[in-house]
Design goal:
heterodimer, A: alpha+beta, Peroxisomal Thiolase, Chain A, domain 1, 20% strand, B: 403 residues, alpha/beta, acyltransferase (chain B), Beta-ketoacyl_synthase (chain B), Beta-ketoacyl-[acyl-carrier-protein] synthase family protein (chain B), PKS_Beta-ketoAc_synthase_dom (chain B), 3-oxoacyl-[acyl-carrier-protein] synthase activity (chain B)
């Protein structure tokens, strides 16, 4: 049955997904759509994607976020050689709950045991929770609104929702949305404190490029609808690959994977997929990703 | 794609010159000075001992669901202000709770008094001597959570920490949510509490003045720290009309930008640009603005730069520009919210709030009309609310009389 929802409210408008990438170290496109053909590199090998320059002092989560962004933009490996068209005015919204906890913890330990002089000036910006979003903006020249979200298990789709508000309210034409978590010992220990049994945290990033129709140069035919909040478990999503616990990155990683699946014809019958993230403490969010021109199959929204 | 018009139908000021819209309006019209000797901590040893505390604040008489023992002073300011705004809006509480409704609140220091108490305890009793109940109160995110808990709102609970322009950011975010249809009702504003750290911090910055805040005066010498809560009830124009609500004002739009330049020094060009962004977003021409509610901190740097930027944008005869901080002190995260409420009251009641403590025009400053010392009757159709913060976070909201 085709969707009959009226779209007179701006909040209901679908937005274009102009690019995507998933970057979970060790995984390939066969494991997780949107990944590279060869296993995605870890943060220490981020130079393979980004080039050598500009990575000194960058934390693992910033490196993974940059790798996902770089690949979603469809850029060749290496540092940018000329300014990116479409960068001015583009917004950046990043979801990460634990991106900087190891740095904060290390800085505090150092200050307590050895004094403030031992804190590296390169670590100082890394202690700020917006460092990932600002690093992406600086590297690619994105001068629009710049936000970091750390709202727990729903952070990934919270970031998508915030990007939608920015775009629909006319605050930006294009938005780069990134979800990322590290898997260092501090992050893992903190993630293990979550209720239930979320599974061991894994490192990974996802990126989607959202925009108003025509705002990005590429028309992929993939669109994303409004983000819906659920106070009870909305049930399993459409074939969301079980790749491990991605916490605040999950929403964006799975959205990028769904876009890749729909675009790549990996699932010929699916014209739309529902992506979800969340847990019992933080509630759940879902969003529908659709391939343009295709009719939604009944029940596909689960 | 239709964007909705957004109106303000409820006002909730909790301030040192009046709690509730009518008392606050009276305070503004009378030019009441809300500054008094500090009572919330012992200021012995500080050279300056004045602040804009809300001595009459009795949260236990204002909130109904929150237990005042479990929430910090700043969260209680936020929740109490929200209560007032909802009462003023005249909306049924159960209906509100069942709607797509949330809150966005701004702050500078969050629960600064709680943090101070914990710091003191950690120094005297060690980490093991800290009260777990107090630790739970520290997070600034609790400001909006307090509002949502108090009113049973299940939508957004966003706390923005863009310092002294945070209320304008919060108001802008709420406006966007309603305009796009993402939410149907929003409570927007901000809150902060007077505390030892902000008093000491601003003193050490050389930004504190001794007795009275005198914005735009030739002899101005700094801020007085203040506190309070500000909340406004926002909904779409259709929603307000459908339920027959009294519309105080319309939110016409807003503008944000960042100086990306200096941590504390304001930037004239960037502030002027922010005004132009706000005007463009609101569809307003500079000559249509009837009143500017200034950021007006009373520091030599801010007031000079602000007046200069105003002249850059408005020309040699800018609209009257007054500072509520002359009466309230600098209420930090609540400041632009209390400024916005003052502007709404000015629009609705056809008056301009004054800049009190004004004695001597500054010959080095571009010529402006600071509405000196006495409120003035005036037809205010469009008002501009300025908010600037450390780090160069500028946020300006445009308000209009409902047509």
């Amino acid at each position: 049955m085709p969707e009959t929802r009226t779209q007179d409210r701006a909040a209901d408008q679908p937005l274009s997904v102009a690019g995507w990438a998933t970057h979970v170290p060790g995984l390939t496109a066969a494991d997780l759509p949107g990944s590279p053909v060869e296993p995605a590199c870890g943060p220490d090998d981020a130079k393979d994607v980004l080039g050598r320059k500009g990575l000194l002092g960058k934390e693992p989560s910033t490196r993974l976020a940059l790798c996902a962004t770089h690949r979603a933009l469809g850029l060749p490996p290496g540092k940018l050689t000329e300014p990116l068209p479409y960068a001015p005015g583009t917004a950046v919204v990043v979801a990460s709950n634990l991106g900087n906890v190891e740095t904060v913890s290390t800085v505090l330990d150092d200050m307590r045991s050895r004094g403030g002089n031992v804190v590296s000036p390169l670590d100082a910006p890394n202690a700020s929770s917006n460092v990932i979003a600002s690093s992406i903006a600086i590297r690619y020249g994105f001068t629009g609104p710049n936000l970091a979200v750390c709202s727990g298990a729903t952070a990934g789709l919270d970031a998508v929702r915030l990007a939608r508000v920015l775009l629909l309210a006319g605050r930006a034409e294009r938005a780069v949305v990134v979800g990322v978590e590290p898997a260092d010992p501090v992050a893992r220990a903190l993630a293990a404190l979550r209720p239930g049994d979320p599974g061991e945290l894994i490192a990974g990033a996802g990126c989607v490029l959202l925009g108003r129709p025509g705002a990005w140069p590429t028309d992929t035919g993939i669109t994303v609808g409004p983000v819906t909040r659920h106070t009870s478990d909305p049930g399993p999503a459409d074939g969301q690959p079980a790749v491990g616990e991605l916490y605040g990155a999950a929403g964006v990683v799975h959205l990028a994977a769904a876009a890749a699946r729909l675009a790549g014809g990996a699932d010929d019958d699916a014209a739309g997929l529902t992506v979800r993230c969340g847990d019992a403490d933080d509630a759940w969010l879902t969003v529908d990703v659709t391939r343009a021109g295709a009719r939604r199959e009944a029940g596909a929204a689960a | 794609m239709s964007l909705r018009r957004v109106v303000i139908t409820g006002l909730g000021p909790v301030s040192s010159i009046g709690i509730g819209a009518s008392a606050y309006s009276e305070g503004l019209r009378e030019g009441v000075n809300g500054v008094s000797p500090i009572a919330c901590f012992d200021p012995t040893g500080f050279p300056y001992i004045m602040a804009g505390e809300v001595h009459a604040f009795r949260p236990e008489d204002m909130v109904r669901r929150l237990s005042v023992d479990e929430w910090g002073r700043t969260s209680l300011f936020a929740a109490s202000a929200a209560r007032l705004a909802v009462a003023d809006a005249g909306i049924d509480e159960d209906e509100l709770a069942a709607s797509r409704a949330g809150s966005s609140m701004g702050t500078t220091g969050g629960e600064s008094q709680v943090l101070e108490k914990l710091t003191e305890d950690s120094l005297t009793a060690g980490m093991g001597g800290l009260d777990a109940g107090l630790i739970r109160q520290v997070s600034s995110a609790r400001l909006s959570q307090a509002v949502n808990r108090e009113l049973r709102l299940t939508g957004d609970a966003v706390t923005l920490s863009t310092a002294c322009s945070a209320s304008n950011y919060a108001l802008g975010y709420a406006y966007d949510l309603i305009r796009t249809g993402e939410a149907d009702y929003m409570i927007a504003g901000g809150a902060d509490s007077v505390g030892r750290w902000s008093h000491a911090g601003f003193y050490r910055l050389g930004a504190l003045t001794e007795k009275a805040c005198s914005p735009f005066d030739a002899n101005r010498s700094g801020i007085i720290t203040g506190e309070g809560g500000a909340a406004m009830f926002l909904e779409s124009l259709e929603s307000a009309q459908a339920r027959g609500a009294h519309i105080h004002a319309e939110v016409l739009g807003y503008g944000l930008n960042c100086d990306a330049n200096h941590m504390v020094a304001p930037n004239r060009d960037s502030i002027a640009e922010c005004m132009r962004i706000a005007h463009a977003n609101a569809g307003v021409k500079a000559e249509e603005v009837d009143y500017i509610c200034a950021h007006g901190t009373g520091t030599p740097a801010n007031d000079f730069v602000e007046a200069s930027a105003v002249v850059d944008v408005f020309g040699e005869n800018p609209p009257p520009i007054s500072s509520t901080k002359s009466m309230l002190g600098h209420t930090m995260g609540a400041a632009s919210g209390l400024g916005a409420i003052a502007s709404v009251l000015g629009i609705a009641g056809s008056f301009l709030p004054p800049t009190i403590n004004f004695n001597t025009p500054d010959p080095d400053m571009p010529k402006i009309d600071p509405v000196p010392n006495k409120a003035r009757a005036a037809d205010v159709r469009i008002a501009q609310v300025n908010g600037f913060a450390f780090g160069g976070n500028n946020a300006i909201v445009m308000l209009g009389r409902p047509e």
